Structures are given as structure tokens and as C-alpha cells.
Amino acid sequence: MKLYYYLERQNIFKLFAALTLLTIAVDFLTQRYIFTSTVYYNSFSEQLSMDQIDNIIANKDKSFYFVYPIEAVLLLLKCLCITIVIQAGLFFRNINISYSKVFKISILGEFVFLAPQLIKFLWFYFSKQAYTIDDLKTFFPLSALNIFDEKTLPLLWYYPLKTINIFEVIYWFVLGFLISNLIKRDFNASLNIVLSSYIPALVIWVSFIMFLVVTLNPV
Description:
The protein has helices at residues 2-8, 12-33, 37-44, 50-62, 64-91, 99-110, 114-125, 133-138, 158-163, 166-183, 187-216. By secondary structure, it is mainly alpha-helical. The protein has one domain (2-216). Helix 5 packs across helix 6. The longest helix is centred in the C-terminal third of the chain and has 30 residues, at 187-216.
């Protein structure tokens, strides 16, 4: 409870800046120490020449300056969309809360998703086995994707199975906790607001991604 009131007093711009910097920092470490030149050679040595692989690596290094600002914008858009979804759930229950307060909750909730990024970094950083880009792209800790063999799994199911993970569930409970403190109602009622508004939106989003996969990668 003390932690909530401490976070509640924090400036919304500082919170988002902290979230963005931490996200970019983990991504930078992953690109620097996990997506190494060796990984690219392991991934493309049978398909491309050494010069072509070197060009891919060089272009990747140059793209850093463009990727991180885009990453920050996408993170902002995600927080804004989550805010709208939660705000809609509150509205239909006749609960009037300012948009900025709900936006702050969506920012705080996003800190949960730093955990799987950090776990992924540590997992491959200390891994003694050779891995490829496909291994990195299909790895998501504590997700339903780990149950299946990604080599035989259709591409269509990668994203939905990756979305079903323990961190997503923790995220729901964190949002429920933050909302319960904000609207001064019990946790179960607040969690119900989250589940009834966020999950339908998540299903729509996952369905949209699956539609894109089918469209862009026809059988």
C-alpha cells in the first residue's frame, strides 16, 4: 500500500521516462550481447555469403538510432490504448476517473513486462549452447509457446501462444490492484473491471495479428 501511494505521487512524465529508458536499456543489452555476429553467422551461413551477412550486421548496427525512438513511440501508443480500454471499463460501471490517473496506472503496469525481457537476456547471456535468431525470436519465458516444438508449430500460432504467459496474468492482477486503490473498491471488483475490458481487447488484438500473419504469409 505504501508503494502505491509513493508511485501515485510520482510525476507521470518521469514514470514514462523511467519505463522507456529501462525498456530501451534491456533492448540495447540484448542487441549488444545476445544478437552478436556469431548468432547471425549461425543463422544465415547456409543461406548467404559472408559478405552478405556482414552487410546485415552493419545495417543492424546503423539502425539503432532509428529503432529506439520508434520503440518509445510504440510504448507510448500501447499505454494510451490500454488507458482507453480501462477507461471504457470504468465508464460502463459509472466510475469517473481522470484520464491522466488511468494513464499512470497503464504505465505502472507496463513495468511487469520488463521481467520477461530481462529473463530472456540473462537466459541467453549465460547459455553455453549455440543459438540462432529463430531461437531468440521464439523464446518467451513461462509462456504456452514453450510447451510446443517451435520447429513444427505453424507460424500462425507463435504470437497467441507467446501471449499466454505468466507475466500477462501478473499484469492483470497488478492493474486490478492499482485500480482498486484508485477507485477505493475491493480487489475482486477492480480485477473484474480489468478482465472484462482488457481481455476482449487483447483477444481482438491477437486476432488482428493472426490475420496479418495469414495475409502476409499465405500457405
